[in-house]
Amino acid sequence: MGCKLLAALSAFSMVSAFAAPTMYEAEDLPGASVAEGAEFSGGKYAKTADPSGITFTVKVEETAVYDITTKVLIKQYDWTTSKIAVNGVDVGSMLTTPRNCDSSYVVSASAKMKVGENKITVGNQALGVDYITVERHPDPTFNIGTAPVTPNASESAKKLYSFLRENFGKKTVSGMMISDQNFNYDYGNMRLIPPGGCTPADSCKFSDEEVSWKGQTDIAEFYKRSGHYPAIGGFDMLFAAGGHHEEGWFKGYTENNLLMTEDLWNIGGIPTYTWHWKVGEDTVFYTQGTPAGFNNPGCTEGVMGTSNTNTCFNYTKAFKGEQCQELDETSQEYKDIVADVDIVSGYFKQLEEKGIAVIWRPLHEASGGWFWWGTASPECYVQLYRLVFDRMVKTNKLTNLIWVWNINTDPKFGYDYSALNAAWYPGDEYVDIVAVDIYDPLNDHNSAANYYNKIVSDVGTSKMIALSENGAIPDIDSIAEDKAYWSYWMTWSQTWSGNFLEKTTTEMWKKNLDDERIIALDDMPGWDKVVAEITTSASSRISNKLNITLQGNNLSITIPQAGHTNIALFDMLGHKVANLAKGNLPAGTLQFSLDGIARGNYIVRAKNGTANYAQRIRVK
User: Fold this and answer.
1) Which of 66, 101, 159, 212 is the most exposed place for a label (fewest CB within 10 A)?
2) E strand spans, 446-535
3) Strand 547-551 vs strand 554-559: parallel, antiparallel, or unpaired?
4) Given 469, 507, 516, 533, which residue is catalytic?
5) How high is the pLDDT of residue 484?
6) Which residue among 210, 365, 481, 502 is the active-site one?
7) What is the DSSP track for 73-90?
8) What's the pLDDT score for residue 16?
9) pLDDT, tens digit (0-9, with 9 covering 90-100), for 564-575
10) What pLDDT sits at residue 306?
């Protein structure tokens, strides 16, 4: 089997003025020697005695995020310590699986560089390096529809969506997850005791203040550190289904979610829900070991149950075909899935009836493989996500959900930002927000622009982008400087031994929550003051900008105005690959097939009248 590139290449779907990247040849560097041998044909590959690799000195005139591309020749097993680093910080992997032959690759990464000199280090001493190119990362232009993807969305969902859309790119909404809960429960009668409902006979453990949303330990600790309450409160359908979900404390936990959600909404906040989904009578959602999940050797035919660390639930049996093309409604797996979805839908229906909308993030951290829904193929995951959407929206008629799809690293490619795998994306018609989970080290408050830009690259600019879980918060100054404006971030819980509030210093908490660019609860306008957009579909937005989209290998270019137009395709070094269109063209959409173009990154350059456009695309 021939070698193939497994590291994800950076390609950015955005409109920007295009300038050819600056190239730096490795053989021109002091101390570098040109490698010789048949395997090094096709370029002048330089090597160095420095075990850290070849280091280029690059001077830039603006502090910004820059795209770095390098051509390298990796011999068998040289991948083990091959990295791209900027100023001593790793910003991308070369390859993450062993090589079986000697091959050259073009690998890309993105990183912030400061005004003046910066050091870019590539590879290791065994690696052959041909060149690097450097150019400023272009700023994205978003074209986000005015309506949620849910047909006939409720008024509250429209308001929530409109609020997020209006602030996206300008401000970031703060959030905090709740894990452990304070609530009082009458176990004899299996009923949650609401605030003000305790009698002496109930022997309630918590005060009314402690059982409120603000009184929950995670939220109170957030306030203690920052001086503000978060605008977003995170909840989990963790005990809504699965084994024991009808038992006292478990049922109380879920019912208390609803009570706190109502409390939060009524004071102007935003609820968001995750689902650590335990199917049927199962009690574990995690998969462990290699192979994981239903591929685990302990998962014999017909076994669904759990060990302490692994669930054997095989959701692909709910479908027919290798890529889960068709539902198998007769299967027990299908029945288990829809039964659980119906339970959760019932809880959300209670919120809908009270005029409450929710940011909903099902099947999160898609490609990681540590949850049962991430152990099969991207194609099967997509079908599972669509099944959940269709069951909740079309069958159960829920209209109050804002849908989040949570991209994640794919272990097949690695664990840095370049390993985010958009092959698991369910499609634009199923997603309102694309989010990622990032747990940076203690007191590391970078903007995570690499992840933000990779989402833009692979998913496009028609969706809001959020940081759905985080440890240390991204500093708002870094967010603004890198133009990586997350719609919101949500720090994971302090309770249940999370301790994630401690990843950020008190000074950084106060600095960010006091900043007008961060939205806290006291910055929320109140839902009675939010006006929902009245446009019914994203397609009704009128844009005066040329629009370039790529679906599969079919390129669509929409010309905003009639006039002289010139469109061409270039490789990443500025060489023209093909003329696509030229002449006086009417306004409208042109279609081009790129089936004859080799896989890789390209630039589409277009001139329409006096306006110039450029957009990166990735041919797969």
Assistant:
1) 101
2) 464-470, 489-491, 518-519
3) antiparallel
4) 469
5) 94
6) 365
7) EE-TTGGGG-EEEETTEE
8) 31
9) 787 888 776 656
10) 76
* b (16+ CB within 10 A) / e for 320-337: eeeebeebeeebebbebb
**What is the C-alpha separation between 283 and 440, in angstroms, rounded?**
29
Asked if 429 is an active-site residue, the reply is no
**Domain boundaries defined on the chain:** 22-136, 155-529, 543-619
Q: Return the DSSP state at 123.
A: S
Q: Two tokens at 536?
A: 């019914």
* CA–CA–CA angle 232, 451, 76 (5° rounding): 145
**pLDDT at residue 602, rounded to an integer:** 81
Answer whether 254's CB lies under 8 Å from 179's CB.
no
Question: Which residues does 544 contact at the CB level (< 8 Å), separation at least 6?
Answer: 560, 561
CA 243 to centroid of chain Cα atoms: 30
Phi and psi based region of residue 170 (left: phi greater than 0; alpha: psi -120 to 50; beta: remaining): alpha
**Best CA proximity match to 293, nearest among 376, 380, 406:** 376
Separation CA 138–CA 246 (nearest Å): 52
Residues lower than pLDDT 50 in the chain = 1-19, 96-100, 536-543
> CATH assignment of 543-619?
2.60.40.3080
Q: Which tokens hold the place of 568?
A: 């061409």
Residue of 426, 491, 484 whose CA lies nearest to 451: 484
Encoded tokens for 577 = 């690959």
Domain 22-136: give its CATH superfamily: Galactose-binding domain-like (2.60.120.260)
Q: How many helices (H) and strands (E) does the chain have?
A: 9, 31
Asked if 230 and 176 count as a contact pair (C-beta separation under 8 A), the reply is: yes
Specify whether the CB–CB gap between 274 and 234 falls below 8 A: yes
Crossing angle between the packed helical segments 378-390 and 332-353, to the nearest 10 degrees = 50
CA distances to 307, 322, 464 from 511, rounded to whole Å, are: 45, 52, 25
Q: What angle do CA 545, 546, 548 make, to 5 degrees?
A: 130
Q: How many of the other CB atoms lie within 10 Å of CB of 347?
A: 18
Active-site residue, 469 included: yes
Per-residue tokens: 316: 């692909």
What b/e sequence results for 181-198 when a residue is b if at least 16 CB atoms lie within 10 Å of its CB, and e otherwise? bbbbbbeeeeebbbbeeb
Which one is the CATH code of 155-529: 3.40.50.410, 3.40.50.1240, 2.40.37.10, 3.20.20.80? 3.20.20.80
Angle made by CA atoms 68, 72, 76, in degrees to the nearest 5: 140
Query: Could you tell me which of 431, 317, 289, 293 has the C-alpha nearest to residue 380?
Result: 317
Q: Hey, what are 305's tokens?
A: 């149950």
Return the closest-CA partner of residue 69 out of 2, 131, 158: 131
**What CA–CA distance (Å, rounded) separates 266 from 257?**
14
d(CA 581, CA 568): 7
Do residues 410 and 6 lie in contact, with contact meaning Cβ atoms separated by under 8 Å? Answer: no
